[in-house]
């Protein structure tokens, strides 16, 4: 049974992506798991990518186990996706995983990075005095409540003005992260809620955790791939049979969205 499952997962992980593309929107995430190696229990990173295919359905693009989250690990991961046919990526949404932004720039020229708004809020909270966080949080959330790109940027300016004098460290944090947390605003408003955070993948992550927590410590990396790969393959089938995640009309409009000026010449930056 394990051999059959390994074969099924291997075929799923290495399937060509050409016919399902272009994948306008991609989301990437990493989960930490425990595995026995060399007589010790160590942590490893499970890298996962999902995307929206040319029919508007979500699709699991790939999964890989790495020793840790590093630029080389992410580069290898994305290089494999590109080799299998990943094309047409306009936006990659993720947390600020170490090395991920560099990997996007190296493998997906023309793609923009959207820093997950949920994770960014947590990062910003860590540099904000506790007493002032409710006000800063409310203003940050108000940025995402705006009806169009111009209003989004105007409200972000108001947020910067609010913290400029009283919270210089917070102001600097927001200023450095601006392009990354507002990348969604370059696309049609109808797609914003699906691309400005990794929240749509949280259900998938919870299911992976539910299944892997029963194991606890994996005997080897192949066991991780076997179980996580099976969960992802099941989810991929559900997405394929379910309703479209994005309409074909909104996908077409998103592909026609002009790239920001200087996008191809300016390397993606990662703020803390």
Q: Main attributes?
A:
272 residues; alpha/beta; Nucleotidyltransferase, domain 5; 2 domains; six-stranded mixed sheet; 11 helices; globular
Protein architecture, described:
Helix 2 (71-83) runs parallel beside helix 3. The protein has 272 residues and is an alpha/beta fold. It is globular. It contains eleven helices and six strands. It is 47% helix and 17% strand. The relative contact order is 0.17. It has helices spanning 2-13, 71-83, 100-107, 117-125, 133-144, 149-164, 168-181, 192-195, 202-213, 221-241, 248-255; strands spanning 25-37, 40-52, 58-66, 91-94, 112-115, 217-218.
Q: Give the overall shape.
A: globular
- Indicate the radius of gyration in whole angstroms: 19 Å
Major sheet size, sense and barrel closure: 6 strands, mixed
CATH architecture descriptor name of the largest domain: 2-Layer Sandwich
How many domain units?
A: 2
For the termini, the CA-CA separation is: 45 Å
**Low confidence ranges:** 261-272
Query: What is the CATH topology descriptor of the largest domain?
Result: Nucleotidyltransferase, domain 5
Helix proportion = 40-55%
Q: Helix-strand pattern, N to C?
A: HEEEHEHEHHHHHHEHH
Let me know the average pLDDT: 93
CATH C-level name of the largest domain: Alpha Beta
Strand tally: 6
Oligomeric form: single chain
The number of helical runs is 11
The percent range for strand residues is: 15-25%
């Amino acid at each position: 049974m394990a051999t059959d499952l390994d074969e099924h997962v291997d075929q799923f992980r290495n399937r060509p992506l050409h016919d399902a593309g272009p994948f306008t929107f991609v989301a990437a995430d990493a989960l930490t798991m425990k595995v026995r190696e060399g007589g010790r229990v160590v942590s490893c990173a499970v890298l996962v990518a999902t995307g929206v295919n040319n029919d508007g359905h979500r699709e699991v693009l790939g999964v890989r186990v790495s020793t840790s989250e590093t630029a080389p690990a992410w580069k290898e991961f994305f290089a494999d996706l590109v080799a299998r046919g990943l094309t047409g990526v306009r936006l990659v949404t993720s947390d600020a995983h170490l090395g991920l932004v560099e990997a996007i720039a190296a493998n997906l020229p023309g793609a923009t990075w959207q820093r997950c708004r949920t994770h960014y809020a947590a990062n910003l909270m860590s540099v904000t005095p506790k007493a002032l966080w409710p006000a800063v949080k409310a203003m940050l959330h108000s940025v995402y409540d705006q009806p169009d790109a111009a209003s989004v940027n105007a409200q972000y300016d108001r947020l910067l003005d609010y913290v400029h004098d009283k919270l210089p460290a917070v102001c600097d944090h927001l200023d450095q992260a601006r392009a990354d947390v507002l990348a969604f605003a370059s696309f049609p408003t109808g797609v914003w809620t699906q691309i400005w955070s990794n929240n749509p993948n949280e259900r998938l992550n919870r299911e992976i955790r539910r299944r892997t927590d029963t194991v606890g410590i994996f005997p080897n990396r192949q066991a991780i791939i076997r179980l996580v790969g099976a969960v992802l393959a099941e989810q991929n089938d559900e997405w394929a049979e379910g309703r479209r995640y994005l309409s074909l009309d909104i996908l077409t409009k998103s592909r026609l969205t002009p790239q920001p000026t200087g996008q191809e010449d300016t390397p993606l930056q990662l703020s803390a």
